[in-house]
Amino acid sequence: MTTLEDSASETKALATQRATRAVFLIAGIGMASWAPLVPYAKDRALLSDGSLGTLLLFLGLGSLVAMPLTGMLVGRLGCKRVIASGSLLLLLMLPLLATLSTPVTLALTLMVFGAAIGLVDVAMNIQAVEVEKNAGKAMMSGFHGFFSAGGIVGAGLVSAALALGASPLVSVLIINFLLVLLWIYCQGHLLSQRLHQPDTPLFVVPRGWVLFLGVLCFILFLTEGAILDWGALFLTNTRDLPASQAGLGYAVFSVAMTIGRLFGDRIVNFFGRTATLFCGSLCAAGGLVLAVVVPDATCTLIGFLLVGFGASNAVPIMFSAAGKQQVMPANLAIAAMTTIGYAGILAGPALVGFISQLSSLSVAFSGIAALLLVVAASARQITR
């Protein structure tokens, strides 16, 4: 009888792990599907570059509003309900983003779309922390690997459909069909229990250790945002790479990060979290230094690849640390850390631009490399 119960428990645990991977895939596909639609939205709404930049801020604003609230919602409702609601909201917004043609309606839809991403992002990481705890081994990198792979799938499928002559709406409906299948698959296996206890506050201002983890996440997300928004410009202006090849920088970074995360659990389980975080942060810092110091486009691309591989498992390790700390309830800590970290993607590129204008893009990248050394120096304390 005990053997049957153990077998059933193991089967249920494996189903929950697969469902968690599916949710990360949903988030990655859904978020990345918007990127190829941006030029079409700009043309439909007759937006200037400046107006488009303002419009895109609404996506980040929606996420930043939703993320701190998600910890409270998961505490009261459980991961399953929040993930299901956020995913459905994301599904509903994508067709609107593919068809709306006025700045106001696009801005409002982008804000809701960003809020949906924020809800799913925080809730799926809370789910992942609980699943990893129950498994008793490192799994967070693999989960985030599915998010990265989803980004490649989402942007790739929409871009391919558009290249074949499909309209933005048809391209999005193809994506939605895939997302609905994934959504249906994972619904029966997500964690439904509430994490809130009667004596646990529904909201806690991040402090102490959680605040420190958030700052380190800010540095890691800042690194990713810098490669995303400034990598192409660095290659064209500093390394004289043709504009048609400038996208290679973020491409090699993304592929390296995806591969690093998909194999990350094996790396973490073999070398340990401390060594993985320490060496990974040093690798990312070294990659930026290589990109800055050696005046060659190929070396710069190799540098970006090292940044992607080095940073790939750092954020998952941060989420695991947030789930284990005792300063705040895990759901609230993850929500707070995600919000602070996500600000790195939003505000970080602007900070890089400011430093670049005062000095140069090389100096800005060097500053990020120095910040990554702070992450490396904190590895032992984070993973204790």
TrEMBL record:
Q: Does the keyword Ligase apply?
A: no
What are the residue boundaries of the Major facilitator superfamily (MFS) profile domain, all occurrences included?
Answer: 210-384
Q: Which Gene3D superfamilies match?
A: MFS general substrate transporter like domains (1.20.1250.20)
Q: Which InterPro entries match?
A: MFS, MFS_dom, MFS_trans_sf, MFS_Transporter
Q: Superkingdom of the source?
A: Bacteria
Listed transmembrane segments: 22-41, 53-75, 82-100, 106-124, 145-164, 170-190, 202-223, 243-263, 275-294, 300-320, 332-355, 361-379
- Any idea what this protein is called? MFS transporter
Topology in the lipid bilayer is annotated as: Multi-pass membrane protein
Q: GO CC terms for this protein?
A: membrane
User: Where primarily located?
Assistant: membrane
Query: What would you give as a GO molecular function for this chain, any one?
Result: transmembrane transporter activity
The answer to keyword Transmembrane helix applying to this record is yes
Q: Where in the cell is it found?
A: Membrane
Query: What's in the keyword line of the UniProt record?
Result: Membrane, Transmembrane, Transmembrane helix
